[in-house]
Specification:
- The chain is built from seven helices and 15 strands.
- By secondary structure, it is α/β, with parallel strands linked by helices.
- The chain folds into two domains: 116 residues, 3-Layer(aba) Sandwich (Rossmann fold); 116 residues, OB fold (Dihydrolipoamide Acetyltransferase, E2P) (Beta Barrel), CATH 2.40.50.1020.
- A five-stranded parallel β-sheet has the order 2-1-3-4-5, with helices on both faces.
- The termini are far apart.
- This is Two component transcriptional regulator, LytTR family.
Length: 245
């Protein structure tokens, strides 16, 4: 299976090199770095699967233009910036980038953002609102619909064993498969309220019906065969769910 090809557009040589090394270590095929978006005109037979582009070039937000250019060719773009300028964020958001990375980079978050951008890429305008509303209604019928590739995948809530957070993204584990969704853990806690999901630490929700074993002495819980840690501040809540004989 060919590796995912990623194009970096970054004028900071040291940051570009660091990013290239991290991406290579994560298993991606990194194309030669482009220093300015205006210098890049990719050939149809050598297109990347995803673009990582800085926002600012020479003090101008030229990276935002890459989003529009690539969307016409069906390629997701993740923007990178060290700026926390709210106006810049709102300006960039109008072009519907597939994600944002704050500098300095964090490899785990970087990988989650890339996976989400690749699996959820679509026209995010009306789709996101419609999907969230649809999922909210479907939860009554014990289903969740998540974006995957170009379409939607129906997940049976009772088959989801674990939801783990990585920043504003979450991984949903279901029957040996994993889906990345651009929503924070607190949102899933709200959506799945009353569905048997228990938070066991700061970053994980588990399906209590899939708990095989737990040990307060070891501060661990086994869910669907996987051993997870129970956070000290969550022990009381976990204990309240138990029916002991």
């Amino acid at each position: 299976m060919p590796k995912t090809k990623i194009q970096i557009i970054e004028d900071d040589a040291s940051y570009a090199l660091e990013l290239e090394m991290v991406l290579t270590e994560l298993g991606y095929d990194v194309m030669p770095v482009i220093e300015k978006p205006t210098e890049w005109t990719p050939a149809d037979d050598d297109l990347p699967d995803l673009v990582l582009a800085d926002i600012y070039f020479g003090g101008k937000p030229e990276g935002v233009q890459v989003v529009n250019k690539m969307r016409r060719r069906g390629i997701p773009v993740v923007l990178m910036t060290s700026s926390n300028d709210r106006k810049l964020y709102e300006y960039a958001k109008k072009e519907f980038p597939s994600g944002y990375i704050e500098k300095p980079l964090k490899p785990v978050s970087l990988n989650a953002i890339i996976e989400s951008a690749l699996s959820n890429y679509d026209d995010p305008g009306v789709v996101d609102k419609a999907l969230e509303e649809w999922s909210r209604k479907q939860i009554v019928n014990k289903f969740l619909f998540v974006r995957h590739g170009k379409g939607l995948v129906k997940l049976v809530v009772s088959d989801i064993s674990l939801i783990e957070a990585d920043g504003n993204y979450c991984y949903l584990h279901e029957n040996g498969r994993r889906y990345v969704v651009n929503k924070p853990l607190r949102r899933f806690k709200e959506i799945l309220s009353g569905q048997g999901f228990l938070q066991i630490n700061r970053s994980q929700l588990v399906n209590f019906n899939m708990v095989d074993q737990l040990s307060f002495a070891e501060s661990e819980i086994i869910v669907a065969g996987e051993t997870l840690a129970i956070g000290s501040s969550y022990r009381e809540e976990v204990d309240s769910w138990l029916h002991r004989l």
